[in-house]
């Protein structure tokens, strides 16, 4: 169900001298810890294609905690391990939507981390970005407010280091039809509420 991917931008730099990584007692920096957590999760997903959302969430949480990563890194681990460039053909978002919802739990901050993960995943295939956003919205795994908040802002604390401003602007441009559609649906809803 989920195959191995090339570097997807979520895993950070391989440079040992990276000033932004923190070395652990085991000698693995945060990027290395995230990479190991993603590899462990990807292996689990490959070996257990019919795993329940609860089981996947448990694996992702265990990987995050064992790697001493931040709670929001669960989103990055799952996205990186479970969504490939062939996501649409493999129906990966449909399959993972309940798991993503379980991890984000309708928390706006977690949903912004989800969008940041998708940005990094789509650096090389920006046309995938609006499709992913819309699919996650349709699957009730990403709320309208988080998408519009992302669209209205520029680079933020959520934006991953791998996504430079030019790339982020390009992704925002790709997502414009989805953003406009959400804004129009929102204004139509407000108009009908006023009548």
What this model shows, in words?
The protein is mainly α. It has a single domain, classed as Serine Threonine Protein Phosphatase 5, Tetratricopeptide repeat (Alpha Horseshoe), CATH 1.25.40. The chain has helices at residues 30-47, 53-66, 73-82, 87-90, 92-104, 108-121, 128-138, 144-152, 165-174, 176-194. The protein is globular.
Helix/strand layout:
Blueprint: H1 30-47, H2 53-66, H3 73-82, H4 87-90, H5 92-104, H6 108-121, H7 128-138, H8 144-152, H9 165-174, H10 176-194
Helix pairs in contact: 1-2, 1-3, 2-3, 2-5, 3-5, 3-6, 6-8, 8-10
Helix content: 55-70%
User: Which CATH-level-2 architecture?
Assistant: Alpha Horseshoe
| Gyration radius over CA | 17 Å
Number of domains: 1
Strand content: under 5%
The CATH class is identified as Mainly Alpha
- Which blocks of ≥5 consecutive residues have pLDDT under 50? 1-9, 11-26
Q: Helical region count?
A: 10
Please report the total strand number as a whole number. Answer: 0
Mean pLDDT: 85
Element-level helix/strand string = HHHHHHHHHH
Rough shape?
A: globular
Structural class: mainly alpha
> What does the main sheet amount to?
none
Distance between the termini: 49 Å
CATH topology grouping: Serine Threonine Protein Phosphatase 5, Tetratricopeptide repeat
Question: Summed up, what is this model?
Answer:
This protein has 195 residues and is mostly helical.
């Amino acid at each position: 169900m989920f195959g191995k991917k090339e570097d997807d931008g979520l895993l950070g730099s391989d440079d040992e001298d990276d000033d932004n990584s923190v070395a652990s007692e085991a000698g693995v920096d945060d990027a290395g810890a995230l990479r190991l957590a993603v590899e462990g999760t990807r292996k689990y997903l490959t070996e257990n294609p019919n795993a329940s959302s609860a089981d996947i969430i448990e694996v992702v949480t265990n990987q995050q905690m064992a790697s001493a990563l931040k709670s929001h890194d669960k989103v990055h681990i799952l996205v990186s391990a479970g969504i490939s460039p062939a996501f649409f053909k493999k129906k990966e978002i449909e399959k993972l939507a309940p798991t993503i919802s379980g991890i984000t739990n309708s928390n706006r901050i977690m949903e912004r981390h989800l969008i940041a993960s998708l940005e990094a995943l789509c650096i090389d295939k920006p046309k995938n970005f609006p499709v992913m956003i819309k699919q996650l919205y349709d699957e009730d795994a990403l709320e309208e407010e988080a998408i519009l908040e992302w669209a209205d802002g520029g680079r933020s604390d959520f934006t991953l280091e791998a996504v430079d401003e030019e790339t982020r602007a390009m992704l925002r441009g790709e997502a414009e039809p989805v953003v406009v559609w959400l804004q129009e649906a929102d204004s139509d809803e407000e108009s009908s509420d006023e009548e």
